[in-house]
Design a protein that fits this description.
- The protein contains 29 helices and 27 strands.
- It is elongated, with a radius of gyration of 49 Å.
- Strand 5 and strand 6 form a beta hairpin.
- It has 791 residues and is of the alpha/beta class.
- The protein folds into six domains: 113 residues, LON domain-like (Archaeosine Trna-guanine Transglycosylase, Chain: A, domain 4, Roll); 91 residues, Up-down Bundle (Methane Monooxygenase Hydroxylase, Chain G, domain 1); 51 residues, no CATH class; 152 residues, P-loop containing nucleotide triphosphate hydrolases (Rossmann fold, 3-Layer(aba) Sandwich); 84 residues, Helicase, Ruva Protein, domain 3, CATH 1.10.8; 195 residues, Ribosomal Protein S5, domain 2, CATH 3.30.230.
- InterPro entries: AAA+_ATPase, ATPase_AAA_core, Lon_bac, Lon_bac/euk-typ, Lon_lid, Lon_proteolytic, Lon_Prtase, Lon_prtase_N.
- Keywords: ATP-binding, Cytoplasm, Hydrolase, Nucleotide-binding, Protease, Serine protease, Stress response.
- It is an enzyme of class 3 (hydrolase).
- This is Lon protease.
Length: 791
């Protein structure tokens, strides 16, 4: 080798090594490197010394931080890029040994000993030919395994005869890591360099063979369509190769969990059987997934895990009083249940059915009951459920099978004795998929539910410790056998006074907090609240009342932000500014006694109401006309009433041919509103009798009750709501059936105060109390006509 010393501008390379014969693009941005390239471009040969630094992160490396062997390269192209970056195209010429590095500004300058291979002679004998062929074979084997080198490049190298050129081309084209390229660069002995290159090629081919072997083994073990399974097997095989396969299998985890599970013997046997099946289905992904889900469900069920029973009567009473105003019957029943539980330690859990109009707080009562008993609370909405599988679960043979809502609710609660609310049980429907009501029979029967069998679990589930509470708006749609299993507690409409207390204690604080306000910013006077309840809402519950309070809070919040007011007072006078004009007005009692007009009382889904029944008698042919959207029951009541009046016509001096010569028209105003129910019989009979005889009916009196053909007065329901409606309308006297006296005794004085409630058991009493003694001209005329015919 000729030894030549050159002083060249130097660039320290990061993460790359350039070999002689390589043409490479690279970017430089360090000021010293940029200055070195620019300096090299000013020389005649445009040569530069490129040497790799040992640490990639070093910003200004010294001589000790650089490799000693680099490459003398010539610059072929220079491109300026934004942000002071230069893109340089260089071609490696010869090796160079770094003798001395001069760290002068603005660039690095090195004394370099040029190491040339020009004087190396390759023997033309068989040894040289063997070396060339061997290198070509190793390169061809690598290229075949790698698959990343183009056919053109392979063909070009195979055509090279010169061993030196062949070694340089192979070193440049094979993507060795830069540290391996540095090893080839630093090997100055040509023959040792040949051995090193050959060793690295053979090593690369072996690595690719091992990789291919691993991939082949994995491919044989797994189904090509199961991506997740492939990933698991690859991980498993790699761990086996490394000797690190110590992970616990899923089956072992299930067995460990099964040992810790508190469950009956039957459940544990079933669980172990399914775990054994899971092990045997390892290579059947479809069955394996179904079995895994089933085992996980069994492990999550609280078979023998129960919440601690709390029997603190005082705490329960305080919670119920805090959360709800009124509802004394419900609170009393809960406290009775707790008292029995305290004495027996294990009493039969009752199945309570809370029945009442919407918005009366049935669902919130169940939530408060759970808090009072310190039990986990689970709510299951049954509205619109029509598939029996929703209750009993799907059989495992179905795709996407899952436990029923009852079993899933127990799993969610985490204990076997939660409080479970079955909401809207009256809205369950039935179709060809099964009778959902019948599925609920076993759930809600205390004699059967200790062995409730969910189709998915296939094991008996004990529901005897669950405290079931159901809610419904009406009992009409609930089948009798199901209703017989529940203890019905009626939640009636709230009085205006109760609504006032509920609004003050619960609704107003809740809405103020919800809208970011406090009592200092917005104040509703009591008179304003009374007007809000009376004139802007008409409902049995308090849902609409809460919405109206929310409307006031929203408008107040806007006003506070716009006007910067610190306090807004809502009074009876300025209420219309926030809620508009009054929505509801009550039809007050008539001021004067009239003929053929009687005030009846009716129950609606939003509380009680009064019905003014009007009857006119006119010459005709004996027809009876009924108008006002009357239902079938009310039409029957009207016909029954007229038949009763005809049966007593002679006693009251009504002519025998009166009903043949007159038409009777019964009308109830508000014709667009459907009306039906068995409670308007005596009202219509009294109105017709008044119109026929011409006797006036007391204006301050209202009545409710059904009538028979013989004039007996039958009992009715919804008495509380009806009396509230009478009171709101300014009625002083109310006639009620004799058999409803016990209902009157249960009512609070708040409802009955100011009302004279008179029990009646026959129409004779009704007519005597309702009709005035004053007779009109028409009544005298009918009476005289009747007397003449008798003679």
């Amino acid at each position: 080798m000729n030894e030549e010393i050159k002083s060249l501008p130097t660039v320290a390379l990061r993460g790359m090594t350039i070999l002689p014969g390589m043409a490479v693009h690279f970017d430089i941005s360090r000021p010293r490197s940029v200055a070195a390239v620019q300096e090299a471009m000013t020389t005649e040969q445009q040569q530069i010394f490129l040497v790799t630094q040992k640490e990639i992160d070093a910003e200004n490396p010294g001589q000790d931080e650089l490799y000693q062997i680099g490459v003398v390269a010539s610059i072929k192209q220079l491109i300026k890029l934004p942000k002071n970056i230069l893109r340089v195209l260089v071609t490696g010429e010869t090796r160079g040994r770094l003798l001395y590095l001069e760290e002068s500004d603005p660039y690095l300058q090195s004394s370099v000993e040029v190491l040339s291979d020009e004087n190396i002679t390759i023997p033309d004998d068989m040894n040289g030919e063997a070396m060339g062929r061997g290198l070509k074979e190793m390169f061809t084997a690598y290229a075949a395994k790698c698959g990343k080198i183009s056919k053109e490049a392979i063909a070009e190298i195979l055509e090279i005869k010169d061993l030196k050129k062949m070694m340089a081309e192979i070193s440049a084209i094979v993507p060795f890591y830069y540290t391996e390229q540095q090893e080839l660069l630093e090997e100055t002995d040509f023959w040792k360099r040949y051995e090193l290159l050959a060793f690295k090629l053979v090593n690369e081919v072996e690595i690719l063979n091992i990789k291919e072997e691993i991939q082949g083994k994995v491919k044989e073990r797994v189904d090509k369509h199961q991506r997740e399974y492939i990933l698991r097997e690859q991980l498993k095989l790699i761990r086996e190769e490394l000797g690190e396969d110590n992970t616990i299998s899923d089956a072992e985890e299930f067995e460990e969990a099964a040992k810790k599970l508190k469950a009956p013997k039957e459940v544990k046997e079933k669980l172990q059987k399914e775990i054994n099946r899971f092990k045997s289905s390892q290579y059947s992904p479809a069955e394996n997934g179904v079995t895994r889900t089933y085992i996980e469900t069994l492990l999550e069920m609280p078979w023998n895990k129960a919440a601690k029973e709390h029997h603190d009567l005082k705490f329960a009473k305080d919670v119920l009083e805090e959360d709800h105003y009124g509802l004394e019957q419900v609170k009393e029943r809960v406290l009775e249940f707790l008292a029995v539980r305290s004495l027996t330690k294990k009493g039969e859990a009752p199945i309570l059915c809370l029945v009442g109009p919407p918005g009366t707080g049935k669902t919130s009562i169940a939530k408060s009951l759970a808090r009072a008993l310190k039990k986990p609370y689970v709510r299951i909405s049954l509205g619109g459920v029509r598939d029996e599988a929703e209750i009993r679960g799907h059989r495992k043979t179905y795709v996407g099978a899952m436990p029923g809502r009852i079993a899933n609710g127990i799993r969610t609660a985490g204990v076997k004795n939660p409080l479970m609310l079955l909401d809207e049980i009256d809205k369950v429907s039935t179709d060809y998929k099964g009778d959902t009501f019948s599925a609920l029979l076993e759930v809600l029967d205390s004699e059967q539910n200790s062995k409730f069998r969910d189709h998915y679990l296939e094991l008996p589930l004990d529901l005897s410790d669950v405290l079931f509470v159901t809610t419904a708006n009406t009992l009409q749609t609930i089948p009798r056998p199901l209703l017989d299993r529940m203890e019905v507690i009626e939640i009636t409409s709230y009085t205006e006074n109760e609504k006032l207390h509920i609004a003050e204690e619960h609704l107003i604080p809740k809405q103020l907090k919800k809208h970011g306000l406090d009592e200092k910013q917005v104040k509703l006077s009591r008179h304003a609240l009374e007007k809000l309840i009376h004139s802007y809402t008409r409902e049995a519950g308090v849902r609409q009342l809460e919405r109206k309070i929310g409307d006031i809070c929203r408008k107040s919040a806007k006003e506070i932000l716009e006007t910067k007011k610190k306090r807004i007072n809502i009074t009876e006078k300025n209420m219309s500014r926030y809620l508009g004009k009054e929505i509801y007005t009550y039809q007050m009692a008539n001021k004067e006694d009239e003929v053929g007009i009687v005030r009846g009382l009716a129950w609606t889904s939003v509380g009680g109401d009064t019905l003014q029944i009007e009857v006119n008698v006119m010459p005709g042919s004996g027809d009876i006309m009924l108008t006002g959207q009357l239902g079938d029951v009310m039409k029957e009541s009207a016909r029954t009433g007229i038949s009763y009046i005809r049966s007593i016509s002679r006693e009251h001096g009504i002519a025998d041919d009166f009903f043949n010569e007159h038409d009777i028209h019964v009308h109830i105003p508000e014709g667009a509103v459907p009306k039906d129910g068995p409670s308007a019989g005596i009202t219509m009979a009294t109105a017709m009798f008044s119109a026929i005889t011409g006797k006036k009916v007391r204006a301050d009196l209202a009545m409710t009750g059904e009538v028979t053909l013989r004039g007996r007065v039958l009992p009715i329901g919804g008495l509380k709501e009806k009396l509230l409606a009478a009171k709101n309308a300014g009625i002083k006297t109310v006639l009620v059936p004799k058999e409803n006296e016990r209902d009157v005794e249960e009512l609070s004085t708040e409802i009955t105060k100011g009302l004279e409630i008179i029990p009646v058991e026959h129409m004779d009493e009704v007519l005597k109390l309702a009709l005035t003694k004053e007779e009109t001209t028409e009544s005298k005329k009918n009476s005289d006509k009747g007397s003449g015919q008798e003679k």
